[in-house]
């Protein structure tokens, strides 16, 4: 139940992260509109121009944020960015001396849409122009630098939100791909196992059955009876082997668990090495040990500061000792034979 709860929380965080980025991106322009009405030197006229310009550019800006926060490229993003630039820069002489704060949206959208180095050049130009433009519109030199600082910090904050949401989406996509790959590997392992064990036994039974039928048709009842006796014994052995393997398949493979853990850590940016003994490891892992291994991997993923991890499996007379070593910390899990 705890694992399902953690998974639900993780999926919920991934779903809400883009919504949070869009919401924060929509709240900042509302502050801008409020200042256009109330700040010194502004009035109803500048406030109305601010409302009209914000209503024109904000949907285009939020569209850029929505796609980027979901780790997707904005389709046809260049033309909406051009319209944003025309609206925001064109409204500058009309929407009051605090309007250059709206350059924040233009900076963020430029960095999300334009390729480097044009996006960086545009960002520097807009941030540097905020204070002189605001002073030219009547803002004192004492307050103008604060406007530049506001544009710079607001742009960084919004970009961090977008980056975080996109990172969560990419991490979830990587986890799903790894889970699918683990399922495919387990299916191939079971298919190879059945083909080399039960498949060979069934082919042998079919051949001996044909031989028994031939001898029965050829008037050799004694030899046919001998073949049938062998068939009955072989069928019982094959049935017992099939039941044993089905019981084993109900338990997950230890090797698959270890390879999946290493793949998840690697996908999260942790340099991971998996050392397995040459003598091999047990086919299965009990639920208790499997839960302990998954809890350790989950802790490392949540901490976020782990740089390197080594998972070592040591054979101890049939038992296996798993050692998870990460940045100076060591956790051991004993897997019984």
Question: Can you tell me about this structure?
Answer:
This protein has 337 residues and is α+β, with helices and mostly antiparallel strands. The chain is 71% helix and 9% strand. The chain contains ten helices and four strands. Strands 1-2-3-4 form a four-stranded mixed β-sheet, with helices on one face. Strand 2 and strand 3 form a beta hairpin. The longest helix has 53 residues, at 144-196. The chain is elongated and about 115 Å long. The relative contact order is 0.07. The mean pLDDT is 83.
Give the arrangement of secondary structure elements:
Blueprint: H1 2-38, H2 44-69, H3 78-90, H4 103-113, H5 118-136, H6 144-196, H7 198-217, H8 221-249, H9 254-267, E1 271-275, H10 287-303, E2 308-316, E3 319-326, E4 329-335
Parallel strand pairs: 1-2
Antiparallel strand pairs: 2-3, 3-4
Helix pairs in contact: 1-2, 1-6, 2-3, 2-4, 2-6, 3-4, 4-5, 4-6, 5-6, 6-9, 7-8, 9-10
Protein name: Histidine kinase
Transmembrane segments: 12-31, 37-58, 79-99, 119-139, 146-166
Organism: Nonomuraea helvata
């Amino acid at each position: 139940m705890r694992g399902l709860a953690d998974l639900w929380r993780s999926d919920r965080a991934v779903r809400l992260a883009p919504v949070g980025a869009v919401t924060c991106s929509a709240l900042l322009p509302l502050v801008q509109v409020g200042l256009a009405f109330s700040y010194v030197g502004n009035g109803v006229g500048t406030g109305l121009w601010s409302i009209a310009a914000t209503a024109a550019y904000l949907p285009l800006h939020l569209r850029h944020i929505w796609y980027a926060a979901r780790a997707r490229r904005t389709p046809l993003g260049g033309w909406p960015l051009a319209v944003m630039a025309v609206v925001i820069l064109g409204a500058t002489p009309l929407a009051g001396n605090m309007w250059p704060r709206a350059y924040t949206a233009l900076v963020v959208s430029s960095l999300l849409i334009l390729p480097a180095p044009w996006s960086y050049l545009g960002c520097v130009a807009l941030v540097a122009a905020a204070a002189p433009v605001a002073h030219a519109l009547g803002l004192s030199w004492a307050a103008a630098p604060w406007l530049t600082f506001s544009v710079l910090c607001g742009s960084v904050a919004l970009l961090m939100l977008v980056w975080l949401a996109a990172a969560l989406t990419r991490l979830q996509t990587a986890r799903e791909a790894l889970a699918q790959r683990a399922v495919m590997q387990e299916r191939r392992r079971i298919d190879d196992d059945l083909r080399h064990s039960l498949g060979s036994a069934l082919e042998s039974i079919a051949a001996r059955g044909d031989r028994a039928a031939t001898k029965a048709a050829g008037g050799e009842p004694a030899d046919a009876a001998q073949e049938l006796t062998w068939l009955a014994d072989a069928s019982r052995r094959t049935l017992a082997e099939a039941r044993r393997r089905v019981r084993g398949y109900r338990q997950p493979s230890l090797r698959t668990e270890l390879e999946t853990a290493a793949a998840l850590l690697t996908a999260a940016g942790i340099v991971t090495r998996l050392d397995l003994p040459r003598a091999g490891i047990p086919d299965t892992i009990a639920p208790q040990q499997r839960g302990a291994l998954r809890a350790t991997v989950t802790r490392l993923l949540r901490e976020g500061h782990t740089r390197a991890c080594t998972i070592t499996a040591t054979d101890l007379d049939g038992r296996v000792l798993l050692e998870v070593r990460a940045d100076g910390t060591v956790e051991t899990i004993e897997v019984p034979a």
